[in-house]
Write a structure and sequence with these properties.
The protein is an alpha/beta fold. Strands 3, 4, 5, 6, 7, 8, 9, 10, 11 and 12 form a ten-stranded mixed beta sheet that branches. It has a two-stranded antiparallel ribbon with strand order 1-2.
């Protein structure tokens, strides 16, 4: 769900753009000095102010101040040990940002995704747990399906709209022979993805390029790096009319251009589908994360574009049936079929 904000957080480097003010909102009584007592105090404060995931928010903040990623990973002795005055002030300051509905990911400055610790900073889109399912599906197809081999022994992958680099860097870390071209039109995203690649020492296998998929002829700039084996993207796919329904954490802090997919959520999706055949190998595939309403819309659109030689044949729903879906599309498909896998996950798949 778009409101999922807390999974896998923690950063020991501090809040993005953090400054300390003399104002100390909701200062707890002096006796509330232990980590456990602080979590309880701020949980109550957050609940009274209508902050989502109140206990989780307070646990992540207190754990971060004490140098851990999660409250549960703290040494038990730290749960009851008194905090220092500086630590108390730091907890209060970070909690004040949460009271302003800033996502915990931005407050702590880091997000765990597929086992990687990624730096996060607004307004770059926060990768959600659901997108980890898209990565796992790509890995499944690469490792269990027909062998995908690029010029250097592994797949060459293009990610459109890389944001923080979560998808690209996860694939690089799990596919040692792979290489990635990651593109995004946002300067903040390009800078953050490059920093994350450096932090994870994956910079030698990734090209991070400013690129706007909506510009006519833009695909020509990618030709020197192609053709590619896979295209993967978590594009903006929220229907424009649904944007106002998003949580304040999203509307106030994240880049709306990373979310708003236009009237039917298809604006960027169709650009990616039109671009892919120019860059994909004949045996290549496209993986997209989409809205549950999109498989039918994408299928209809592809039927109206026969020259693209793309067809939609399968759908996987996100874990526990939530309203996120992904799709895989491959060129030169001979059949146009929509299939659903059993269980909790369904995604859209189009084999060659």
């Amino acid at each position: 769900m778009l409101r999922a904000l807390l999974s896998g957080l923690g950063w020991r480097g501090g809040i993005w753009g953090c400054t300390f003010s003399s104002r100390q909102p909701h200062l707890p009584p002096a006796r509330l000095l232990s980590a456990t007592e602080l979590v309880s105090h701020w949980t109550v404060v957050f609940e009274k102010r209508g902050i989502p995931e109140a206990r989780e928010s307070s646990e992540y903040i207190v754990a971060h101040v004490l140098g851990a990623k999660t409250f549960q990973s703290l040494r038990p002795g730290l749960w009851t040990q008194p905090l220092t005055p500086w630590q108390l002030q730091y907890v209060q300051e970070l909690s004040s940002y949460r009271l302003q509905r800033m996502p915990v990911q931005y407050i702590l400055g880091e997000w765990d995704f597929q086992g990687l610790s990624l730096k996060m900073a607004p307004p770059v889109f926060i990768p959600r747990p659901e997108t980890e399912e898209l990565v796992e599906w790509v890995l499944e197809e690469v490792t269990q399906g027909p062998r995908v081999v690029g010029a250097q022994g592994g797949p060459l992958i293009l990610e459109v709209g890389c944001g923080s680099g979560a998808i690209s860097l996860s694939l690089l870390s799990k596919l040692p022979q792979s290489r990635v071209i990651a593109v995004d039109k946002g300067e903040a995203a390009i800078c953050l993805a490059r920093e994350n690649a450096q932090r994870l020492r994956l910079q030698d296998r990734i090209q991070i390029i400013p690129f706007d998929v909506t510009l006519d002829g833009s695909w020509a700039h990618l030709l020197p790096w192609g053709p590619v084996d896979l295209v993967v993207s978590n594009p903006p796919y929220v229907f424009h009319r649904d944007m106002e329904k998003l949580a304040p954490e999203i509307l106030s802090y994240e880049d709306p251009l990373a979310l708003d997919g236009g009237e039917e959520g298809m604006d960027i999706i169709t650009h990616i589908l039109a671009l892919a055949p120019r860059l994909l190998k004949d045996s290549g595939s496209i993986f997209l994360e989409v809205d549950p309403r999109h498989p039918e819309l994408v299928g209809s659109w592809l039927q109206s574009q026969p020259d693209l030689s793309l067809n939609l044949v399968a759908v996987r729903r996100d874990f526990c049936g939530r309203n996120w879906e992904g799709s895989e599309i491959s060129p030169n498909s001979q059949a146009n079929k929509l299939s659903y896998s059993r269980g909790c996950w369904q995604k859209t798949q189009i084999p060659a």
